Amino acid sequence: MEAVTNPRRERVDAARNRAKILAAAAEIVSVHGVEGLAMAEVAAAAGVGVGTLYRRFGDRSGLAYALIDEREREFQSAFIQGPPPLGPGADPVTRIRAFLHALTDRTVEQLDLLLMAETASPFARFGGAYDGYHAHLSMLIGQADPTADAYVLADQLLAPLAASLLAHRLRTCGVTVDRVKSALDQLLPLR
After folding, report:
1. Which class for 66: exposed (0-12), middle (13-18), buried (19 or more C-beta within 10 A)?
2. Cα–Cα dist 134/153, whole Å
3. Which residues pair with 88 in a beta bridge?
4. Fewer beta carbons below 10 Å: N end or C end of the chain?
5. Packing angle between helix 92-109 and helix 111-118, nearest 10 degrees?
6. Are 157 and 187 in contact (CB under 8 A)?
C-alpha cells in the first residue's frame, strides 16, 4: 500500500507489458471482484505469458498490491501537488474536508483490494500510505489550529476509513458513501 517515490527505470516493452497487465487485472477485479483475480486469467487477458506475470509480480497478492500502488500514486500526487481544494492553495479546513472525502472515494474504489491488504497482518494498515495520510492531516490540523493535538486527531479522522470498517458499514449496515462523508464533516474539530 506504499507508493514508491523513485521507481527503477523500465524497458519500454516491460513498461508496456506492465500497463497491459495492470489494465487487465483492474478490469477483472471490477467485473469479478478480488476473488476473480487469478494469474492465468490476467495473463490471458493481457496477452502475456503466465511466467511473465509471476516473474513481474510474484503472486496474486503482489499483483493486487501493484493495483493499489498505481492508484495510490495518483491519489498522493493529487493531495500533494494537485489543484485546490485537495491540493495546495485552499485554507487548511477546506483541504482537510477535501482530503477526507477524496480518501473515502479512493478507499471505496478499491475496497476489496485494500481490505485484503489491510488485513494481511495485524499492523498492515499502518506505515507507508497511512503514514503519509497521517502526516498530511497532522500538518493541516496544525495549520488550522496550532493548539490542537494534531497527531492524535489525524488518527481519529483516519479511523473511520479503515477498509474493514468501511466495508462492514457499506455492505452490512446499509450506510451510504454520502453518509460517511457527512459524518466525517461532523467530526472535523476545526470550523
Report:
1. middle
2. 9
3. 90
4. C
5. 90
6. yes
The letter for the amino acid at 146 is P
For the record, the C-alpha cell of 54 comes out as 509471476
- CATH number belonging to domain 1-67: 1.10.10.60
Amino acid at 185: D
Length of the chain: 191
Task: Tell me the whole-structure pTM to 2 decimals.
Answer: 0.79
Q: For residues 50 and 43, what is the distance between their CA atoms, to the nearest angstrom?
A: 5
CA gap 86, 61 in Å, rounded: 30
Query: pLDDT tens-digit profile of 130-143?
Result: 999 999 999 999 99
- What's the mean pLDDT in 88-95? 96
